[in-house]
């Protein structure tokens, strides 16, 4: 027998959280534990939870005093009791067979460390973006990260990275893994999943993406500097920093060199290099320049954060011996 914990970080979105919890009540395979991490200052959510009809939902709350999704997720992991930990967002509603499909994968193969699937994104009742993608959740050898989890189709397959709104883990695979507290941001902390799943990949665990392991996702308002589709230079730099740090940790020495050259010269639409800036300049003008400068700042900050950790790790390995640190 396996047990499943569902972990939901939430902040000031009680109506979205209600939809999520109602969807969990309808699961064909019920959760053994539901953990909702709530900020200590989030009066709206605490008030809602006092009046919400749990029925048979095995819900526990976890109080978080530090802002950001990373602190919320780690607080949940610290008390989770399930053999499997499935995570979703408060603005999502898992399909009724979500947990049943997740459990089946983990029972079928002991080398599977993580399972995730598609998030069907909606604005109201309308699909936010129409399209099908077969290439999902991949990190290319030179550093380009391909998401497309919200558009993924095709059979189940191994991937490099899952999306926070729809991912699950074998708890025993997380013995030395926690969400990276070096991720920047005061809320969403974009790319935190990348820094979490790549170490599992490096350790040899299989990471499975199956479009049928699905949730409906209603992207809601964020209460931090990251406002989704609106440019904010701090949020943009933070996202690029987080991506850069996660990839530098994952890559070999040669790949790091290739990645840095590619990132500075070319980049992507979400993390501009020089070529992407030139390409967007005619259509976006000053906005393209702002994105480029924010991207460059994020790359530099990401390198500095990685370098500090790398130097500290080398110092500990080369100079500290058992008994040096009490």
Write structural notes for this entry.
The chain is α/β, with parallel strands linked by helices and 326 residues long. 40% of the residues lie in helices and 20% in strands. The strands form 2 sheets. Strands 1, 2, 3, 4, 5, 6, 7, 10, 11 and 12 form a 10-stranded mixed sheet that branches. A two-stranded antiparallel sheet has the order 8-9. A hairpin with a 2-residue loop joins strand 6 and strand 7 (126-127). Helix 6 (233-250) packs parallel to helix 9 (286-319). The protein is globular and about 55 Å long. 41% of the residues are buried.
Write a concise synopsis of the structure shown.
The chain is of the alpha/beta class and 326 residues long. The chain has helices at 14-25, 43-51, 69-79, 98-108, 192-202, 233-250, 253-265, 274-284, 286-319, and strands spanning 4-10, 33-39, 59-64, 84-88, 92-94, 112-123, 126-127, 138-139, 145-146, 157-158, 166-170, 206-217.
Tag the structure with descriptive keywords.
9 helices, 326 residues, 10-stranded mixed β-sheet, 40% helix, single chain, alpha/beta
Low-pLDDT regions: 320-326
Number of strands: 12
Supply the number of helical segments.
9
Query: Share of helix among residues?
Result: 25-40%
Terminal CA distance reads 41 Å
Rg estimate, integer Å: 20 Å
Mean pLDDT: 93
Question: What structural class do helix, strand and pairing data support?
Answer: alpha/beta
- What percentage of the residues does DSSP assign to strands (E)? 15-25%
Name the overall outline: globular
Largest sheet: 10 strands, mixed
Order of helices and strands: EHEHEHEEHEEEEEEHEHHHH
């Amino acid at each position: 027998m396996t047990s499943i914990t569902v972990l939901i970080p939430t902040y000031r979105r009680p109506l979205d959280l209600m939809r999520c919890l109602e969807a969990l009540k309808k699961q064909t395979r019920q959760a053994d534990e539901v953990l909702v991490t709530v900020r200590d200052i989030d009066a709206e959510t605490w008030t809602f939870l006092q009046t919400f009809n749990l029925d048979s939902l095995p819900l526990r709350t976890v109080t978080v005093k530090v802002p950001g999704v990373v602190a919320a997720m780690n607080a949940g992991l610290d008390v989770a009791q399930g053999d499997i930990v499935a995570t979703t967002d408060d603005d999502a509603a898992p399909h009724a067979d979500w947990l049943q499909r997740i459990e089946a994968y983990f029972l079928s193969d002991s080398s599977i460390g993580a399972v995730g699937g598609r998030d069907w994104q909606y604005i109201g009742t309308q699909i936010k973006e129409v399209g099908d993608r077969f290439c999902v959740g991949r990190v290319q050898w030179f550093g380009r990260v391909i998401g497309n989890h919200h558009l993924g189709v095709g059979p189940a397959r191994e991937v490099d990275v899952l999306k926070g709104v729809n991912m699950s883990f074998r708890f025993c695979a997380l013995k030395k893994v926690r969400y990276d507290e070096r991720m920047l941001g005061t809320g969403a902390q974009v790319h935190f999943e990348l820094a979490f799943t790549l170490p599992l990949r490096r350790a040899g665990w299989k990471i499975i993406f199956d479009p049928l392991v699905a949730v409906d996702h209603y992207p809601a308002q964020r209460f931090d500097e990251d406002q989704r589709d609106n440019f904010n230079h701090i949020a943009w730099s933070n996202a690029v920093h987080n991506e850069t740090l996660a990839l530098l940790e994952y890559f070999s020495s040669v790949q790091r060199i290739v990645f840095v050259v590619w990132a500075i010269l070319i980049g992507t639409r979400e993390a501009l290099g020089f070529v992407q800036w030139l390409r967007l300049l005619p259509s976006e003008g000053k906005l393209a320049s702002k994105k480029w400068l924010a991207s460059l700042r994020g790359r530099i900050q990401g390198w500095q954060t990685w370098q500090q950790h790398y130097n500290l790790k080398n110092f500990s390995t080369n100079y500290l011996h058992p008994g040096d640190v009490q």
